[in-house]
TrEMBL record:
Keywords: Kinase, Transferase. One of its GO terms (cellular component) is membrane. It comes from the Bacteria. This is Tetraacyldisaccharide 4'-kinase. The lineage of its organism: Bacteria, Pseudomonadati, Bdellovibrionota, Bdellovibrionia, Bdellovibrionales. One of its GO terms (biological process) is lipid A biosynthetic process. The keyword Kinase applies. GO terms for molecular function: ATP binding; lipid-A 4'-kinase activity. InterPro entries: LpxK.
Length: 56
């Protein structure tokens, strides 16, 4: 399998601009997971499917 050419291209600097937002998003997600509690439901729950990232 051949690696994509963009892996070796010089970065545009956008990564440096978006990096703080990525860190903030990670911290918010972590805090949400720490504070959330699972719920006990009175009826059975069936989950069908999976998580899709980037479309299908």
């Amino acid at each position: 399998m051949k690696t994509p050419g963009f892996w070796y291209q010089k970065s545009s600097g956008l990564e440096k601009i978006l990096s703080p937002l990525s860190d903030l998003y990670t911290k918010i997600g972590r805090r949400h997971r720490e504070k959330s509690q699972p719920r006990k439901l009175s009826i059975p729950v069936i989950c069908v499917g999976n998580i899709v990232s980037g479309g299908s």
